[in-house]
Amino acid sequence: MYLQINNLHKHFETKNGTLVVLKDINMTIKEGEFICAVGASGSGKSTLLRQIAGLDMPTSGEVRIDGEVVTGPGPDRGMVFQHYTLYPWMSVQENTEFGLKLQGVPKKIRREQASYYLNVVGLTNFANSLPKELSGGMKQRVAIARALVSEPKVLLMDEPFGALDIHTKESMHEFMLDLWQRTNITIFMITHDVEEAVFLANRIYALGSRPGTVRKEIKVKLPDRTHTVKRHSIFHDYRDELMELLRRHGQEALAAA
Length: 257
Known about the structure:
Rossmann fold; 2 domains; 6-stranded mixed beta sheet; globular; ATP hydrolysis activity; ATP binding; transport
């Protein structure tokens, strides 16, 4: 599996004229990679993710998965949002099954698949609980299980840990790395959190702002992926390089405004 973004351009017409949000975006994501796109506000991160998800169409250029042009949403892409978007009246099991139910999957099969992925995310014992009975991190695990249950080719994540407190976020980072290593699923995540990107990704695309463009691609090679690596000089080097890159291009964008 590979995800290819070719010369993608996106603009919107506003009362003040044409607003260019994304310009000349080119990315290649191979099977089993964990990729982060990092950028400040105005870099078009969420717009980019919507193009990949098929929720919106590029003005020009294209997104391809396994050579097929993306023309709309599909089960080959699972989506996880910052806010959990769980149905409060449904149990954890029912929330996890919901996408399969919409696809017309028989009850027995969808129950088995949902149960399997609830076990993968460590929530088997909470299958009958309602979302209000869960912590923030647990709710996000349900959202991840729901995205995985259709067995997509790529998992798309829209700042999924932005609403969590720092301790829960760190726990979810370790959970995501474990999940990625166990399932070998391809992950494309957007974030404004530089340290998060360095800790999770094996490659990072740094996006400039106004319009969003790929400023640099960084391959991340850490000695390990445990929380102690954040004290390592190589982690600091990656973090500082990214922060300086985003700061510099942010200043350029403001100067050009």
